[in-house]
Queue: 2 jobs
Job 1
Amino acid sequence: MKRITVIAAAALALWTAAGVQARPFDAIQKEGTLRLATEGYYAPFAHFEGKQLTGFEVELAQMMAAKMGVKYEWKTISFDALLTGLQQDRWDLVISSHGITPEREKAVTFTQPHYCSGAIVMSLDPAIRSGKDLAGKTVSVQTGTTYMQYMEKNLPGIKRLVNFPTNEAARNALLSKRVDAWVTERFIAKELQQKNPNAQLKQGELLLVERIAAAVAKDNKSLADAWNKAFKDALADGSYAKLSQKYFHEDIRCP
Ligand code: ARG
């Protein structure tokens, strides 16, 4: 009886450890498929064209998998559930334009940043351009983003911060004039303006700058190393530059 209890306890301990343990790179190699996750509503970084997931980060991750010698599969899920899924070993790597922050670094391990960017103020009113101009205004932003956190902390004068589950919904709130301003990513803002040159939409100033990286489970060093090696290779052999030109007509790598 006693022995059975001991064995059961040991099995439970093993099972618990295995249940939350991230797969190191050699386990991924052995099984053959890298499990990737992204939000999928963040054009042109990761979005659907019909049923096909595509975009800069999607193509980049697929390029990394090829260089790492593994196949890949995608999961798409809401932005605020992505990093938690890593801790539960639901996927191996998240690539969804996450800015590296000390707070997130406590929960996950970031790879080398794959681009540098920032948050920008967008408005239909040319007088609203900077963080200061947001005082007394209603502002839309995506839930769970560094942008939302920044405004909560640094811009107490904002009359109402309205958060949306996707960046697209936050954009639509501005386009339908339900808010005075929308805070979003600068390359998304640039593309939107280029596609609608006649729109009233005005790009304001940068609110914050950040380094954007993929994330793996905390301390899954072997996977981060394999990704970083593939990434370094892509920077050196011109494939990163080519992909960046395709989507942004410029090289968006971090300086
Ligand atoms: N860079 C911002 C952040 O780190 C926004 C990211 C939004 N990403 C997305 N897939 N919707 O929070």
Job 2
Amino acid sequence: ETAILANKFRGCLVSAVLGDCLGAPYEGEESEEISKVVLQKYFDKLEGPYFKSPQKMYTDDTSMTKTVAESLIHIGGFDAKDMADRFVKEFYKDPRRGYGQNVIDVFAKLRKRTTDDVFLPAQEQFGGSGSYGNGGAMRIAPVPLFCHKSYDNMLHVAKQSTLITHSNVLGINGALLQCIAIHQSLALNPDEPLDVKKFSSDLKRKMSVIEETETSDDDSDSEAGNAYVEQLEAMDKLLEKDLGGIPISDEEVERTLGTSVAALHSVPTAIFCFLRAQNPIPDIKTDNIVRRTLQYAISLGGDTDTIASMAGAIAGAFCGYEAINENVQKHCEGVEEAISAADKIHSIIEGS
Ligand code: F2R
Ligand code: MG
Ligand code: MG
Ligand code: MG
């Protein structure tokens, strides 16, 4: 059983890297600009016999995920100051990774800060409303691995680690939703067909608890309401259509769930990609659920690296490392580090 979990940890972090590396060249493109035929060939070629070529580079998604893992491993738990210092160090060491301009302001303030309050710069973003971007969600994957034994502690660490850069309730809850989705995937047997309806209703139940709490203990005029539960309900309707044999266009997914850098319009989309990929998808020729998830996520356009990375993390946590094509891994930067981080996290939590 512990070997199964180790395999799932690797699958989660490696698939997250693959989604980032493979999706990054398409970030910001419209779905209709991305040819399904070209995308099929892109994956076929990378999965085929190995050929020498420069690796596909990872972006801020993987830089920050690596840092979250390194901090948890180094401390043996969560320490906000350690994690914040590592985000800053990583950014200034390797800034050309496609970070957004706004989050760079947080790093600059964190570097110059004179107090120990590492949460202050994030609170000052966007005139005090905080970022609702998907930057907290995109880097969360190590948290559900490290904290998989304690749900409440997992939510605590997910929230605190997000608050270092994102203080808007939508940015925070997006990270919590992505964290919970990975946590659910870790607990499932990939040899049995996934119960899509149960996966979604479990997510909705947990998010409704979170959205009720967030709304009531927040003094600020909380616009959050039940935004994520509503997105998950919209996701269910799309999935029901799909199961009923009614075609779902990319335009409908984009219009209903979104494909932007906003957490609300990308985290539910990533979960949708994973759930829809449990069954065949038109124009995507593969039996592999991880590949189908990644290829579909990229085909939707928009924030492709991040949506594919988040969807990949959930799919990899479900299917495990053995399901991931070996050749495609060689074409992506950062895979070895992801494997090493997954193994270290596993040995820390199994050793204790
Ligand atoms: N930044 C990008 N991609 C576009 C730029 C690519 C780059 N120029 C290049 O290729 O070199 N990708 C990465 O950023 C996303 C994660 O963003 P994160 O970390 O959440 O950043 P930020 O700046 O906090 O928020 C993102 C944008 O969301 C809007 N926004 C957020 N909160 C807002 C608020 N309260 N009011 C108004 N707007 C808000 C802003 O437009 C932010 O810039 C990932 O895609 C990652 O891959
Ligand atoms: Mg489109
Ligand atoms: Mg990126
Ligand atoms: Mg992105």
